[in-house]
Each structure stands twice: as C-alpha cells, then as structure tokens.
Specification:
Elements: H1 2-28, H2 30-45, H3 49-54, H4 62-68, H5 74-85, E1 99-103, E2 111-115, H6 117-137, E3 145-148, E4 156-157, E5 163-165, H7 167-173, H8 177-182, H9 188-191, H10 196-207, E6 212-216, H11 220-243, H12 257-266, H13 274-285, H14 291-294, E7 300-303, H15 310-313, H16 316-320, E8 325-327, E9 331-332, E10 335-336, E11 338-340, E12 346-348, E13 354-359, E14 381-387, E15 395-407, E16 410-418, E17 422-423, E18 430-431, H17 432-446, E19 450-458, E20 464-471, H18 479-496, H19 498-505, E21 513-517, H20 521-531, H21 548-555, E22 558-564
Parallel strand pairs: 1-5, 3-6, 6-7, 7-8, 20-21
Antiparallel strand pairs: 1-2, 4-5, 9-10, 11-12, 13-14, 14-15, 15-16, 17-18, 19-20, 21-22
Helix pairs in contact: 1-2, 1-6, 10-11, 11-13, 17-18, 18-19
C-alpha cells in the first residue's frame, strides 16, 4: 500500500507543476493576475440578476467596479442568496450552486454560502499549491496518511433540494478515489456520527492502526479534544484493536441503520491486531501514549496557529514533542485567502479570487480607500475584501490581516483577528490578539495550566474587564494563585496596550476582576454545540467579549469569585 501511496504523491507533484508555474508567474505580476480574475468574474456573471442591477457588463476597470458595487457584508447579499435558496436561477452567478456551505459563527443566524463548480476551481488553486509546498518541505509525508477532522457535507436540503453543510466535507467528497483510499483514508461515515464521544472514539480507532504522517485540521482545539480522548480511552482502544472490536463509550446500538453503515465502513479497521495492541499498551504503561510515540512517522501538524488559535498551540509540545506545527492556509467558506508555503509563510492566493484591502483605520469611513495586492504596505493591517465566483461581490468578511513581507511582488499576509472584536470603554481599543498574547505570557510566568478563558467587558458598577478562567483538569489552582494570575495578566495587557494602562491609571477603568469556571465547562459547551449541529471548525469561542449565549452559559459555570485586584 505504501508504494501505491507514494505513486499517488508522485502523480500529484507532476500534475501540480502547471499550477506552481502559474503561481510563480502571477506572483511576479499580481496586478495583471488580479485584473484578469476580475474581468473573468464580471463577464461570466454580467447577465445574472445581480449583474444587471449593478451593470457588471459595463465594468472595464477596477474604478468602474468600485462605483458599481459597494463594499458589503453577508446581510447585503442575503436577499439574493435567499432567492437562490428557494431555487431561482441566475441570481448571483450563471454557474448554479451544487451545495451551500454553512457558516454560523458558532451560535448566530446561519449563513449559507453558494458553492459553485467555478468557485471550487478557484478554491483548489490554493489547495494544490499549499499541498505542493508542504510536501516539498516535509517529503516524508508520503510515507504515511493524513488524519483530518471535518464535518458532514450534507446536513439538510434547501427548499430547492440543494444540500447544505460543511465545505470541508464537500471538498473531501470531491477528492479522487485514490486520495480517499491512500492519503486520507478515515471512512466518511465516521464524520457523520452525531454523538460527540462516539465520533472521536471512531476516529482514534481507525487512526491507531494507520501510519499517520500528518495531522491536518483547521481548529487546534479539535486536536486537543481528540488527544484528550486518547488519554481517556487508550486502554479501551488497545483492547478493541487486540480483539478486532469497536466498543465506543455510551450506548452504541450496533443494530441502528446508521450504525450498521458505520460498522460496514469500519470493517477494514476491525481486524484483530494483537501486535499493535501490545505496542499501545506498552506506551500506556510508560505514560507515553502521545502522537509522537504512537506514530513515529508523524512529520507535521497543520492547523490554525494565529490569533486566538495560538492559545491552544502552547499545549502541543506535550503531545507532539518536537513534531513541527505549521499554519494551515487562511480562509473560510466564503473564500480562500492564502497559500501555505510550508515554512510558516502565508502567500496571498492571487490565483483564487479578486482581492481588495482597506486600511484598518478606514473601515468605518463612508468611502474608505481600497487597495490591490501590489499596493500594500509591509507591516500594515488591512481588512480583506473578497470577490469570488460563488457570487460574493466586494464581500467584507470582517477579517483583519497584516502584510508581513512579499514573495516576488505578491504580499505575504497573516490573519490577525476578527474585525469588530475590539473592546473600548474609553478609547483603549483592546483587541483579542492582545488579550490572547497577554494570557499566554501570564500562564508561562505562573506555570498554571489553562483549558479555556475569555474576557468580558463589564459596565457596572464602573467599567472594567472580567476574566472567566477554566484551569486544566487536575490542576491544583488555588484562589490565591488565580489572584496572582489575574494581576500578572493585567500587567501583561499593559505591556501590549498603552491606552489600557493610561485608562487604568486615570481611574477611567476599574481593575480587572476574575472568576474561575468549573473544570469541564469548555468541554461541555463544545459537546452541546456539536450535538446541536455546529461543526467543529465553526466553534470559535472568542477570548474577548464572546456572544451573549456563550457568556450566559459560562455564567452558570462560575464557582469562585476572585474580586477586585489591586492596581499594578
């Protein structure tokens, strides 16, 4: 099987050669590439309802496009998407969607992004290039398989009978059969399991008998949850592997129709394997049941590493040892923003969509300036604006990116944070990135393990911020220790936000306060969300000013009030 797998990778590299040559050329002249992309989208969709209303047939220049179409968010697109949802044709694009990608932002009203064949082609430009760069950087990936975690492609049907679900699942289903068999072989029915514990158990049951060379999933918190199940169920999994059985926790009804399909898909993994079981049992006895020991061929972990995701990366060394962790490409259901160059650099996916960039400080102006890829200033933050073949026109996704360099003439960018997730009682403009970095520094100073935290703006009795903190299970974290952590945390915020410090010293902000959450609160919320149908990749709980529903949930999990902390 390893020979076939390596042949598949060799074929991929040959097929990717054309994409890489095109990317190289376009990076040398990104303006020409972007103008060609805009022209293609305008011509393809000029006769749609949106195209006629906005005169896309008359768009000859970028200036024409900006006059015809304002920068807008999903709500401005929603009336058109609702018409497509009901089955109307030629609304946003001439190319009809074969699915809707759902993206809800955890608990908000669902958004449905039309996914067309032309959009998938745009999306895959970045996938092919990222795969090529990653394989070039980590060639021994070809000696094993990739462990991915994604959500179902079909969660239901629109009134017109078009499926809606996770774009990650939709992309997987469209992979060639050889890729699904030899590169990413976890059976698709595993991802359809609705029970949270059973799904992770099934993923591990398969992965433990596979030569995993790469972890590839968006959300690092998903990886942490999976590995905690490895700790919890290691002995049971080893026993199942020895006996060729599948006995997940809870009440698993093997006779249920969906479970019969699951067991059929799992059949190749349910052969007795006492030798592998002994290896795992020995690791358990030595307290070494972790990925770098379980899969000695493991080469790299690919996931989000920026902004709030960075908080979870700090736990990776105890699971993965020295295995490199690299940032997965920046993007969303609405569009693919970057190509991962395999060495931490994120290259604007200049071949995917048409991009514009608005300086962060101008986004709330009536007519903000917008710049093209070749006009960006290194070191500056911008809001990124997408125009795609899925029918999103000058789409404001509310993401702030920073230009950190260039490859030829094409910018290298890094996702910073969701725009709007800035809290400012009195002009301090506290960002999620500052909060996340401050907590990481405070935890390092005090040596306290943290499972989750979030910071709430509180207006009463006087404006102040409140920390909700969940320690790691088994941590002996006293109230005194938490008080010290809160004090250090606020000090670290000072180091990152001079205005916060000024407002505190002038008493316009009261001291930071803190509460401890029950151990397991974050895990419980994740379980509730996944059970209710929220995809793992959509569980993005903010470390600053989370949504009201999240806040209400955690309020019920508070166990210790720490009170006011003296000024630093």
């Amino acid at each position: 099987m390893s020979i076939v797998r390596q042949l598949v990778y060799q074929v991929f590299k040959r097929l990717a050669a054309g994409e890489m040559a095109g990317l190289e050329a376009d990076c040398k002249n990104p303006r020409a590439a972007q103008l060609a992309k805009l022209e293609h989208i305008m011509k393809s969709n000029a006769n749609t309802a949106f195209g006629k209303e906005h005169g896309l047939a008359n768009v000859k220049t970028v200036a024409d496009y900006r006059k015809a179409v304002p920068i807008s968010d999903y709500e401005a697109h929603r009336p058109y998407i609702d018409r497509i949802w009901q089955g109307e044709k030629d609304v946003l694009t001439a190319d009809e969607p074969f699915m809707f990608a759902t993206t809800s932002g955890t608990m908000g009203q669902a958004k449905y992004i039309p996914i067309t064949e032309s959009y998938i082609k745009e999306f895959r430009h970045a996938s092919i290039a990222s795969g090529f760069f990653t394989l070039q950087k980590f060639p021994k990936i070809a000696n094993g398989v990739t462990l991915s975690v994604f959500s179902p492609a079909e969660e239901g049907l629109s009134p017109a009978g078009v499926p809606y679900g996770a774009i990650s699942g939709g992309l997987y289903l469209r992979e060639p059969a050889l890729v699904k068999k030899y590169i990413s072989p976890i059976p698709y029915p595993v991802y359809l399991i609705k029970d949270y514990e059973t799904k992770y158990y099934a993923l591990l049951r398969c992965a433990l008998v596979l030569p995993v060379a790469c972890f590839y999933t968006l959300n690092p918190s998903t990886i942490v949850v999976l590995l905690k199940r490895l700790d919890r169920y290691g002995a049971e999994l080893a026993k199942d592997i020895a006996e060729g059985t599948f006995t997940p926790p809870g009440n698993f009804d093997a006779a249920a129709p969906a479970n019969r399909e699951l067991l059929k898909a799992l059949k190749p993994y349910l052969r007795k394997n006492p030798a592998r079981a002994r290896e795992l049992s020995q690791l358990i006895e030595k307290n070494e049941m972790r990925p770098d020991k379980i899969w000695p061929q493991l080469q790299v972990v690919c996931c989000w590493t920026r902004a709030s995701a960075a908080f979870y990366i700090k736990d990776f060394p105890r699971y993965f040892g020295d295995v490199p962790v690299t940032d997965i490409t920046y993007g969303a259901s609405e569009g693919r923003g970057t190509v991962s160059m395999g060495d931490g650099r994120q290259l604007l996916s200049v071949r995917s969509h048409f991009f514009e960039f608005v300086p962060e400080e101008q986004i709330d102006e009536k007519n903000p300036e917008a710049f093209l890829a070749d006009e960006l200033v290194e070191g500056k933050n911008y809001y990124i604006i997408f125009t795609t073949s899925a029918g999103l026109y000058r789409y404001h996704i509310n993401d702030v990116v920073k230009v950190v360099g260039h490859y030829h003439q094409c910018p290298l960018i890094e996702f910073q944070y969701k725009g709007g997730n800035i809290s400012s009682f009195t002009g301090e403009k506290l960002t999620e990135l500052q909060i996340t970095d401050a907590m990481r520094a405070a935890l390092l100073i005090h040596g306290i393990g943290c499972r989750f935290f979030t910071v709430l703006p509180e207006f009463r009795p006087n404006p102040h911020y409140r920390l909700l903190f969940e320690p790691e299970a088994g941590e002996n974290c006293s109230e005194e220790q938490l008080n010290k952590l809160v004090s250090t945390f606020e000090s670290e915020i000072y180091n990152r936000n001079i205005e916060y410090k000024t407002k505190r010293e002038s008493m316009r902000l009261d001291p930071l306060r803190g509460d401890m959450l029950r151990v397991g609160a974050y895990e419980s919320l994740r379980k509730n969300l996944t059970t209710s149908g929220v995809a793992d990749a959509q569980i993005k709980l903010s470390h600053l000013n989370p949504k009201d529903e999240v806040r209400s949930y955690f309020e019920k999990q508070t166990v210790v009030y720490l009170g006011s902390i003296p000024s630093v």
